[in-house]
Amino acid sequence: MQKILDEIKIIPGVLGSAVYTTKRGILATNLPEVFKTDTQERIGNILHRVFKLNETVKLDVNSFEIQYDEALLLIRKLCDTSSLIFICEPDAKVHLINMSASMVTTDLLGLISDCEEAPIPEKKVVAPQEKVTATAPPADLESVLNGPLADKFTQMKRLLATHIGPVANKALKTSVQQWLEQGEPSAQRLGQLAEIMQREIDDKASRDEFLVEMKGVI
User: pTM of the full predicted structure?
Assistant: First the structure.
């Protein structure tokens, strides 16, 4: 869980995030040190109560944001007993943060289920396994990712993460698998891998910027 929050923190403008549950308080956090544990739990308790209003006023609010001069708070409901809290710079890109949060919600719910009995969609276990099986034999892909080019892959993932957030880890694996289907893994072919990876970026200007940055890696 902590690893997921650390990956989210890579997103430009994100100062930190935390997972709050009504039963156990803060399960994981990398919020700035100025926010002590008891302070985080009080904040989490207050913010999560907003979702309880859904039952009273018959709404279906799953996320909301609070704008301050010094910071932006984004709160996303994970389930009835838990929520994901972001503290960001005032001008942070909300759409990028929300997209990244959507991608990691299922993973977080799976980890929360290990700590407390939170409702988890049954497809959580099935869908990822089917996807991995369809894209590559896990042993082959992992052996390449952890092989001689591991440092290069890490650098490439970090660059991609500045454009698409924490989903870069999954995007890298998908891209490497496609790359392997076209030839043997080698440093000479990293340019081809960069071309495949840039397809994961929606914005054309960001894609071009990514390819320029990648020249310093490959």
Answer: 0.50
